[in-house]
Amino acid sequence: MPVSTPTHHDRHGHYPQASSVADFEHNLVAVRARIATACRRVGRDPSEVRLLPVSKTKPEACLRLAYAAGCRLFGENKVQEAFGKWEAMQDLTDLHWSVIGHLQTNKAKLVARFAREFQALDSLRVAEALDQRLQAEGRALDVFVQINTSGEASKYGLAPEDASTFIRQLPAFSALRVRGLMTLALFSAEAERVRRCFVLLRDLRERLRQNAPSGIALDELSMGMSGDFEIAIEEGATVVRVGQAIFGARLLSDSHYWPATSSTDAAQPS
Questions:
Q1: 267 pLDDT exceeds 50?
Q2: Do the Cβ atoms of 8 and 184 come closer than 8 Å?
Q3: Cα separation of 235 and 112, whole Å?
Q4: How far apart are CA 134 and CA 113, in angstroms?
Q5: Mean pLDDT of 37-57
Q6: Fewer CB within 10 A of the terminal residue: the chain, N end or C end?
């Protein structure tokens, strides 16, 4: 596979703040062009890759500009922040929300109310809490199982060797529609170390597919963020979570968002 694609450190801090609809339109065109170029390198159709704009830490006004530029789905890490934005933006009836960060069981009731998908499922306790709340709401939720492909203790997600046992238990939760796997790659300037995380997730998905329970779809691979999504696409990503390349660099450095420990509602750079 190509090794010339950028990684986190190459691009962080170089994204100007998007402050108008035109800025967002420009950034979306640029990101989609990067997606298309990465797809061409490996003979993929760009339509196979879904762009998830990550709006965490950004105020409602910015989200409304992004919406005006065409965004209809936003990814958020912190549930309470996302829920507040959802409440404030219910006038936009075709706007949907993806929760992409770690979830405590006591926040499941919020996710069950507003989210279209949840990309960080790594606990049966969370699965049970979500299922109960969703049943009460009369809703279903698309979910991705989060895998810790870097082996870092600071990251959430199941160990790859635990994924099969975990997934075999998910049919018990009928309100959860399992769509695929998600990972956060190693935060590194070395492209090949980042790539190994994506290869691991893709290979794990192929193994899990061989004996996945009935009704469990593992079609999706959510991997890749602003600095490394080209590598992820080269290795099979079907969803890329892109924040800074669309919204602009965040006010604080990536080290603030990247968890030093597995703290509550830890955020990741996107």
A1: no
A2: no
A3: 32
A4: 8
A5: 97
A6: N
Q: Which pair of tokens denotes residue 170? A: 């998910």
Is a pLDDT exceeding 80 seen at residue 56?
A: yes
Per-residue confidence (pLDDT) for residue 250, from 0 to 100: 74
Residues in the chain: 270
* Residue where the block lists tokens 């992409």: 100
**What is the Cα–Cα distance from 130 to 153, expressed in whole angstroms?**
25
Q: Distance (Å, rounded) from C-alpha 246 to C-alpha 57?
A: 13
Q: Which fold has domain 8-257?
A: TIM Barrel (3.20.20)
Sequence ranges of the domains in the chain: 8-257
